[in-house]
Amino acid sequence: MKIAISGKGGVGKTTIMALLAKQLKAAGKEVLIIDADPSPHMAETLGMENVDAITPIADMKKLLAERAEKTAGSPFYQLNPRVDDILRDFLIEENGYKLMVLGAIQTGDGGCACPESHVLRKILKKLLLTGGQVVLLDMEAGVEHLGRGTVAGADHLLIVVIPSRSSIRTAQKIRKLAEEVGIPRISYVGNLVEDEDDREFLRRGLGCSPLAFFPNSTLLRRAERDGRAIVNIDDHLQHAPKQLMEELFRQEDQ
Fold it and tell me: What is the 8-class DSSP label of residue 54?
């Protein structure tokens, strides 16, 4: 199963992805996490060491440009740049998690055809189309990645939404674009939920119920502020991570 996650900035998508990874690992699944956020911090969230030594693939401009050389006499880049060694050499494995930090190309043109973006799309597609493991893709906030097609091949898109009108509006826009690019399954996940009023607010605003509601956890918030690994915090979160995992597998089996 290949799961991407998105949402408005600040809604907690990286935290939820890390908690889902922890739940999947506890269930005996092989988990590969791809951090494709422009400001990647999944490694810290997972409690990996030597975080400062990790170089996002997107920062290796020369390597990426070489892999996306234009075909002679053509304005187009190679359709199948070689990426197998990149997939092999840039995987980090620690504490039972496999992590690849892609980062993202910083550009003012969301639809740019720069060589770096071309190779990153190829890497994502190749990873997302590889079976035998659960792939979790932590995307950048907002909707730009959908326009670039970097979630092509995902089985399921989770859209994280908090109890606010602006978050709901962004979530609905993301859903519309995800439907246009043909992602098979699209679901919402509620976060920072305090009570039943928040849950009902989200149900009404979204027109459906999220797969799971994650509570507004003081323990997780303090851990994030202190730079401690989220996955090491002993907070049952009202069993939301387990519920989310079970709902994902239930939908996969349908």
Answer: -
pLDDT tens digits, residue range 74-131? 444 454 556 666 666 677 888 888 888 876 544 433 444 455 566 666 666 666 655 5
Nearest to 80 by CA among 140, 129, 38, 31: 129
Helices 165-180 and 196-206, packing angle to 10 deg: 40
Strands (DSSP E) contained in the chain are 2-7, 31-35, 92-94, 97-101, 134-138, 156-161, 185-193, 213-215
Copy the structure tokens of residue 78. Answer: 């190679």
Q: What is the pLDDT of residues 137-158, one digit of tens each?
A: 888 776 666 655 667 678 899 9
Count of CB atoms situated within 10 Å of the CB of 107: 13
Q: Which two tokens stand for residue 47?
A: 């409690």
CB neighbour class for 60 (10 Å; exposed up to 12, middle 13-18, buried from 19):
middle
Q: Which domains does the chain have, with CATH numbers?
A: 2-253 (3.40.50.300)
pTM of the complete model: 0.83
Give 180: exposed, middle or buried? Use CB within 10 Å, 0-12, 13-18, 19+. exposed
DSSP character for 15? Answer: H
Written as six digits, the tokens of 89 are: 């050499």
H or E segment to which residue 168 belongs: helix 165-180
Neighbouring CB atoms inside 10 A of 17's CB total 27
Q: How far apart are CA 59 and CA 61, in angstroms?
A: 6
| The residue to which tokens 């494995």 are assigned | 93
71: region left, alpha or beta (phi > 0 left; psi from -120 to 50 alpha): beta
**Type of residue numbered 232:** N
Distance, CA of 183 to CA of 61 (rounded, Å): 29
